[in-house]
């Protein structure tokens, strides 16, 4: 299956909210920050993957990485590389992520992310309600990548 990437536009918000809800992922803040989301659509225009950034001053928090079973897993690195370009375009200096899946660390390390301890996270991370919530989750792993 071929999947094309596109930056989300206002007309995509409802579709994106439904896609995330189908994966039981919060869509809080999408309406005001849709331009920080990247979508993947199949040849028929159906959304098959999405990923977003929550901007916090000059850093971004990777969030809402969701893909359907139809999305080719070998395209996940390309999807992540594209969202890093969105971060660069929006003049973010670095991107952070949180995961509870240690098995995903090698993928993120291959894209230049390095693991950091919660105590090393910048103050802007804790200023975000979502970032603060993540920092309080036991077993949550954090990673960082300069842009």
UniProtKB/TrEMBL annotation:
It comes from the Bacteria. This is N-acetyltransferase domain-containing protein. It comes from Peribacillus glennii.
